What does this fold into?
Amino acid sequence: MKRITSFRKDLEAKRAVKIIAGIDNFDMDRVRNVVIAADKAGASAVDVAAKEEIIKMAKETTSLPVFVSSIVPQDLAMAVKAGADAIEVGNFDALYKKGLRMSAEEILDIVKETLALIGNSNVFVCVTVPGHIDISSQIALAKELEALNIDLIQTEGAATVHTTSEGARALLETAQVSIANTIELVRNVDIPVMTASGLTTTTVPMAIAAGASAVGVGSCVNKLNSDIEMIAAATAIVEAVKGSKVVERETANA
It folds into this structure.
C-alpha cells in the first residue's frame, strides 16, 4: 500500500493529522526528532523542508507519508524525485517572520510551474492559501486550485494575529483566523481543507468542528526541547483529533 493511501483515508474520515517540522528547519537532528514524534504519536503524516538529505532521512525513519514544503518549484520537483509522498506549496509562517508576503497570483504561478515540472508523477499536491489576503481572494484562489485538481488546501492565519491575552484566551485568539478561513473555504469548494497555523491541543477539535478534514501542527511540537516532549505533544494532538481509542486500536494493529 502506498503511504499516501493511509493519509487519504484519514482525510475522508476527517481525522488526518500532519506534524510539521518546518519549511526552514534544516537541523537534521531536530527534524529527525519531529519525525519520530509524529510516528510514535500515530499521526497521519509528517512535513519536512525541501532538502534531499532530510527527505531521505524522513523516509528511512518513518513509514508515515512524508510531505515536503517549499515555495520554489524546482525544489518541489527535486522532492518528488527524492521520494516525497506529497509536496506542498506553503507553510508560509516561517517566511512571514522574514517580512515576506505572497499574493494569490504569486501562489498560483508557483503551483502552475510546479505542476509543469513534475508532469505526470501523480504525487499528492497540497497548497497553502495565504491567511493574510482577504477572504474573497482566498476563495477565488481555492477555486482556481480546485480547477487544477489540487488534492488538498491548507489554511493559515496565526501570523496575522497579535494577541496580548494569556492562557486559553490567547490560544483561541491565535487559532481563530485560520479556523474562520477554514469555515469560509469549506463552504465554497469541495476540495478537502486542512487547518494549520497556531493550532494546539485545545484548538484542533475546533478546526475539525469547523469542517476541516485535517489539521497541521508545527510549533507546539517542533519548538520543544526534547524528543520526549515532542512525542507527548504530538500524541496529545493526535488524540484530540482521532480520539484515544482510535490511536490505541491503530497501534495494536500496526
About this structure: The chain has twelve helices and eight strands. The first helix runs from residue 3 to 12.
